[in-house]
Amino acid sequence: xxxxxxxVFVENSRGKLAAITELIAESGVDIRALSIGxxxxxxxxxxxxxxxxxxxxxxxxxxxxxxITKVIGVEMPDVPGSMAKVIRxxxxxxxxxxxxxxxxxxxxxxxxxxxxxxxxxxxxKILLEKGYTLATEEDIAQL
Length: 143
Known about the structure:
The protein is an alpha+beta fold. The protein is globular, with a radius of gyration of 15 Å. The protein has 2 domains: about 5-70, 2-Layer Sandwich (VC0802-like); about 70-140, VC0802-like (2-Layer Sandwich). Strands 1, 2, 3, 4, 5, 6 and 7 form a 7-stranded antiparallel beta sheet that branches. It has helices spanning about 15-25, 50-60, 80-90, 120-130, 135-140; strands at about 5-10, 30-40, 40-50, 65-75, 95-105, 110-115, 135.
């Protein structure tokens, strides 16, 4: 049930992030969530988009270094403590979480936690056993 995440290498200078988001917009793809980690020289922009292959092609045509990584989208109530519970449940079951970020789907009144785990398949199994609903590519496209 993993979903596709775009990871884009971004030079940390004026206009670079704008150029990337414009390419995605021009391709007709919606950005659903994003996270960026940076240093003084560059950053890694991680995004959940409505059509990852289409966005990847547009970015590559614009000469950007981009990859698709499989991550887990966990649906949770949009209330305080939901994210902490998902992370605790995964951690207590031995899942090594490499990074997370969250976004809210207003139309469905849910929040989503994006998880990249050391072993996504094991993490998915544990989260499903705990009763969580995992997002699919189709769910993301319909947000």
